Structures are given as C-alpha cells and as structure tokens.
Amino acid sequence: MNIQHLKAFVLAHQLGSISAAARTMGKRQSQVSQWISDLEIDFGVTLLERTGNSIRLSAAGEELLPMMVHTVSQADKLTACASALSFEEPTLLRIGIDNYIPQSCLQAVWVKALQQLNVNLEVSTNSRKALLVGLDDGSLDITLLTEHTTLHYSDFDYCRLGSYRDVLVAGRSHPLISEPVVTADHLSANRELIWTREAMTDDEEVGYSPTYATFTELASLVAVLQNGVGYVMLPYDQIAPYLATNQADQRLQVLSTDFEQAAMSRRVEAVWQHGLSQTEQGKLLLSLIKTEHALLVE
C-alpha cells in the first residue's frame, strides 16, 4: 500500500473523476488509474465502479473511504511536521481573526506575543470564509474563528478556546423597548441593522427581519440605534460602552427574547497549519493564544 495510491483514490472520489484527480496530482490519467487498480489488488476488493467516464464508490469503497481519508490526512500532517523540523524558525507569523470576535479579548495575547516572540507578526481581520481560504492557500498561519458547523478539521490543527456573548439591543425610544419579552414576530416586523465591518459576503446568515440595513462602521450604526431606528445583534464587549446602566439612562438597552432563554454564547476556535507547533516561535504563539485570551471559559 502506497500513500500516493490512497491519495489518488480519495481525490478521484472527491473530484468526481480519475482525470480530475490526475490533473490535481500533476500525473497522467493512466498512471493514476493504475495506482487505484494497484490499491484494489492490495486490498483484494473493488473500490470504484467504472462506467464509461464516470465512477462511483463500490460498497467496499464506501466502507473504507473514511479510513483512507484519515490516513491521507495523517500522512500530510506527518510530512508538514517533519518539514517544519527540518527548516529554520519562521521569521513571520500571519494571524487572521474573524470579524465578529471582540478584539478586546485578544489584547493581552498581542502584548505578550510582541514582548516574547522574535518574529514579525501580521494580524488582520476578515470573514470566516476568507480566513479559511487563507489557511487553504497558505497565506495565513493561524486563524481565530467563530465556531460554525465544522466539528473536525482534518487538514489543520485546532483548539476550542472559549466564547464571547452576543446581545440584542435597540435605542430607548424604539417600540420594542416597551415589549416585556420580544418574539421572533416582533423582530420580523422591524428593521434589523447589521454590522458587517466589510462588504456583505455570500456566507452571511439569514437575519431576523426581511428589512435591514448594513453598516461597516460601528459608530454610524450606534448613532442610528440611539435615534430609535432599528435593532442589532452584537458582541457584548463591542456594544457595552453604549448600554444603559439604569432605567433613566437614555443609551441603548438589551432586549429580552422568548427564543433565547440563556446567554447567547458564540464559541471561538483557533485553527492553524500542520507543523506550526513544531517550531519554537509557533509553539510559543499558540501557547499565548490559549492562555492569555479573555474569552469566557465554561
């Protein structure tokens, strides 16, 4: 059994054809086809059922595919770790942060990192989708992401760190403030404001209302809220300076809803390139991220 043969089979399944797998691997189609045939001989089972130019997994292929994907992933991780050990320490580490993660939770990390690391740091913010692309193409070393639906990253190392809290807020003169408990119907009937920090992207979640307005600048959004127009969901740390502290305070107020019975927590995960933790500078930065963040730890 050869790792290249396993990779050829996995790619053929993922890309839908042997020719596509061959292009990705930079090999001839006949060679990749032969590798898969050799793998079938080694295993003693048929992995792919071929009909003309199309392929589909056999019953045995479906059974073995998850194990082969895991084996290929571990082999890639081994190669990356060995490569990191064989080269000099990095001189630059690039960190991407999800737009919605409160920067205040990470200030201590950057202070300690700049004091203790002997590398240049590039810290940027972007959408979750763009950050994952950066990991894939190697333009980022580490990302800090708001947890989504991915339970396991086979192509990267990762760690769940903690969480930040979202709150739903409106201005004191907004009609929703008079509602003791806000329902989804209430929200749907009023304009929602959305803080994007950037242009809207394809992966934006569906909001509470069909009527909305987007703002890249938080100060402008807050000014609109303070005039009694719209409501918004924001990380508590971002909006806390603008929140009312008592009933007479005319600043923004948190809304209570019937569909969120507990605090709205958003978990944060660190995701990084295989092999980074094998370098002294990468290991130190990851340790600082894990120990110095100010996220909520349950």
From TrEMBL:
SUPFAM superfamilies: Periplasmic binding protein-like II, Winged helix' DNA-binding domain. Keywords: DNA-binding, Transcription, Transcription regulation. InterPro entries: LysR_HTH_N, LysR_subst-bd, WH-like_DNA-bd_sf, WH_DNA-bd_sf. The keyword Aminoacyl-tRNA synthetase does not apply. GO terms for molecular function: DNA-binding transcription factor activity; transcription cis-regulatory region binding. Signal peptide: none annotated. The keyword Acetylation does not apply. Residues 1-58 form the HTH lysR-type domain. Belongs to the LysR transcriptional regulatory family. PANTHER family: HTH-TYPE TRANSCRIPTIONAL REGULATOR, LYSR FAMILY TRANSCRIPTIONAL REGULATOR. This is Hypothetical transcriptional regulator, LysR family. The gene is SO0989.
